[in-house]
Amino acid sequence: MSTGDLPTAFGGRRILGALPERSNAAQGRSERNSQFHFGPFLSIQWILSMPAMPSPLRSRRSPTRTPETSRKPEILRPAQIFDPVARALDVIGDRWSLVLVRQLLGGSKGFQELRVRTGIAPRVLSSRLRQLRADGFVESVPAEAGRPVYAATAKGRTLSPIIASIARWWIHEGIGALDVDPGRFTETSARSVLESLPHLLREDRAQGVQVVFEIRLSGEGGGVWAVEIDDGRCDVREGYAYGADVRYTASARDWCAVALGLCDAREAVRSGRLHKEGGPQAMDQFFHQIARPDRPSDASSSFPHTTEGEKP
């Protein structure tokens, strides 16, 4: 349709008015311009219609994650995780619980005695005893003096194997692994060493052995104790050991030094600080000395044998 036909193309009404006829030259320029402008457009369409080539960058991208693979695992609360060790430590894992139960396994004790034996501050001790009572490991029982004392319950006594295992680990592994200096225990009480002897026992050497030692100690922290070894087991009780096989006499401080290996027993005997009477058995033959881990396997000669009335 030419421009001259526009007025009659819409129901005979003149809308745009008469348009001048273009010359052949103008039409030629229009066609050339149309080819010029639309040529690049057609070329772009042709390029876009071609199949996509793989991009080197695309191969380096991580694979698309699905919701299942991208979701982080849910982190449970500790109490929801089945871990017997962790759940047990929820109850008995604070610093002083097992220490106090261990003290009460040997018999009922009052508040002040527990303080002396453990060194725990009063407020902390009161708090821990209150919690142990609430958990059913400790009970308060009446005493003759009027003030109540504390004792381990049947539930508390079930912790005895755990306490013994911890003590043996420290003696056999902890001292070396933690580089513990035995010299730090020079002021310890003789009672604490004597009551630890069951954990210091060399069970392999004590198998099939029956012997009773009597320990008589003077000075601060002194007293009398009976130490009995019976076929791989050790029992320590306060008091005289009638019919003892071996008797030791020393000051509490000197005996602790010898028992822990901080002082040579032979030198202590020569200097008169340690006396041994009775049979040939010697305590360091059956007990670990933490300061002397490399001593000879047969240590019975460390405590020279003397008979009643003889000079060491």
Keywords:
312 residues; extended; two-stranded antiparallel ribbon; Arc Repressor Mutant, subunit A; disordered C terminus; alpha+beta
Please give a structural write-up.
This protein is α+β, with helices and mostly antiparallel strands. Among the domains are: 84-161, Arc Repressor Mutant, subunit A (Orthogonal Bundle); 187-302, Nonspecific Lipid-transfer Protein, Chain A (2-Layer Sandwich). It is 38% helix and 13% strand. It has helices spanning 24-49, 67-70, 84-92, 97-105, 111-118, 122-135, 154-157, 160-177, 190-194, 197-200, 203-206, 252-259, 265-270, and strands at 138-141, 149-152, 210-218, 223-230, 233-238, 246-251, 274-278. The strands form two sheets. The protein has a five-stranded mixed β-sheet with strand order 5-4-3-6-7. Strands 1-2 form a two-stranded antiparallel ribbon. A hairpin with a 7-residue loop joins β1 and β2. The protein is extended. The termini are far apart. The relative contact order is 0.06.
